Write the structure tokens for this entry.
Amino acid sequence: MQNKNKINDYGAVLDQKYGKPGTDERNAFDEEAYAFYTGQILLDARKEAKMTQQEVADALQVSKSYISRIENGIIMPSVATFYKIVNVLGLRVDLVKLA
């Protein structure tokens, strides 16, 4: 018996639900996904650094709610702000060329 819930190609699922890559709907989905993923990375890093949102906000001279909105994937920080947060959390970003 075949499992009808089995996903063989998640790209096809995304294509069906949000449209092909390059469409407005797919671009909007991708942006939301990137914001969520970035927020989760920063949230995990902040917790690992044992810092509060307020401590990060104070170090960046921004509001706690701004940090919260980033961590919840509501907004995407600018590249400059992302690097500032990374620095405050004692991390670094390495760019590596693939293949």
User: Anything to note?
Assistant: The chain has a mean pLDDT of 91. Residues 24-48 form the longest helix (25 residues). DSSP finds five helices and no strands in the chain. The CA atoms of residues 40 and 71 lie 6 Å apart.
